[in-house]
Structure prediction request, 127 residues.
Amino acid sequence: MKSNRLNYFFLIVLVLILGILSRKISGIPLFIGDILYAVLIYFGFRFLIMDSKKSTSLLLSLLFCFSIEILQLVQIDWLIAIRKTTLGYYILGEGFLWSDLLCYIMGTFMAFLIDKKLIKTQNLNSL
Prediction:
């Protein structure tokens, strides 16, 4: 079980790096970062609640991502101030987009399928 938690940690770090790079490198469509954001959230939930079903992580990830996106409709001064920081911008975003919800669905299901197929059948430490 400890090795699985380590696998999830490595996946989180990898996806985090890829997500930041996707925003820094020109030519990469912005929606790639949104998909990677959802993948990161899914693996984050798997890291935190490994003992639960993978479908629970799937649902919690979708709920979290959708909540963050809907929260972007809220324009409160202190929330705007947080969004102006680098970390706040990466976590909370800045503007609501319907297309982001689709990206979150795609990213979460991609992560779920990767988790279901790859992590169950193969130890990532050997990759």
